[in-house]
Amino acid sequence: MSSVTNRSDTATTGRIVLGQNNYGKSEVRVVKVIRGPEQHEIRDLWIDVALEGDFRAAHVSGDNTGLLATDTMRNTCYALAKEHLVSDIESFALALGRRFLDAGPSVERARVRIVEFPWSRLHPDGRPHPHAFQRGAGGNRMATVVTTADRSTFGAGIEDLLVLKTTEAGWEGFLREEYTSLPETSDRIVATVITASWDYDGCEDHDFDRLYNGVRDKILRGFGDHYSHSVQATLYRMGEAVLRAHPEVSRIHFSLPNKHHLLYDLGRFGIENDNEIFHASSEPYGLIEGTVERAG
């Protein structure tokens, strides 16, 4: 009995320390109208801030001395948008990160993630309206900048990019065992909602707008320019196309849910269905994820 007690005492009396921790402000929604003389532009952002540093006193003893309030982080996003939200979101994220390092004496690392929602100009009379917009399609742009006193790292991405091919896709030759019921096909709809994130080599001098547009273009081209034997094969083809075209990108990660479109059985009604009528299913779906990166 005493040996059990000793083991319990050893397990419960070890030194307790604070592990990794961070804090910040999330879902800061900044909208900026750039009022040009002829027309307006709109920037619509979602900002998440996370700070790391020497915050032990706040956790362990309740001492908030030198701790930057999350309300201050929110206010900073709006205040700096006036001067710094003028070009790519990477530059704005970098300005925010540097500000948090300067303003917070205990801050050692600032991570700023920005999602930009697209808006497109209305054309009510066949001409672009100077200050009327509709929510754009084609995915939301993302940027993540991590800033320390010594360096900054830059990542980018795209989310909510819905794509679909009506043919030149199949799923054949897969493993069959006693619980397999799915038939093989050499002609199917393949659809997914692309979430992709990538890391840049190098520094803040990149032309981030050019790179984002170039990567997005290669992803879209890579999705549609081949016969897809599987979502896995398409994932690799898109990633390979990005890395070959853009040496600034060191790796790219994809998350690709397989949005099933199932051929609807019209034969029971005496109607032929020659790959024309489908049910867009909300049943459990396949999720394919992977990273394509440079070796070494």
Task: Provide a descriptive summary of the structure in words.
It is a single chain. The protein contains six helices and twelve strands. It has about 300 residues and is of the alpha+beta class. It folds into two domains: about 20-150, Urate Oxidase (Roll); about 155-295, Urate Oxidase (Roll). A hairpin with a 4-residue loop joins β6 (about 140-145) and β7 (about 150-165). α5 packs antiparallel against α6 (about 230-245). The model has no long low-confidence stretch (mean pLDDT about 95).
Q: Give the helices and strands as they follow along the chain.
A: HEEHHHEEEEEEHHEEEE
Tell me the fraction of residues in β-strands, as a range. 25-35%
Distance between the termini: 55 Å
Number of domains: 2
Shape: globular
CATH architectural name of the largest domain: Roll
The CATH superfamily label of the largest domain reads Urate Oxidase
CATH topology of the largest domain: Urate Oxidase
Overall helicity: 25-40%
Look at the structure and give the mean pLDDT.
94
Q: Please tally the helical runs, counting DSSP H or I stretches of 4 or more residues.
A: 6
Report the CATH C-level class of the largest domain.
Alpha Beta
- Determine the structural class based on helices, strands and strand pairing: alpha+beta
Radius of gyration: 25 Å
Q: Which runs of at least 5 residues are low in confidence (pLDDT < 50)?
A: none
How many strand units?
A: 12
Widest sheet, order of strands? 1-2-3-6-7-8-9-12
Main pleated-sheet profile: 8 strands, antiparallel
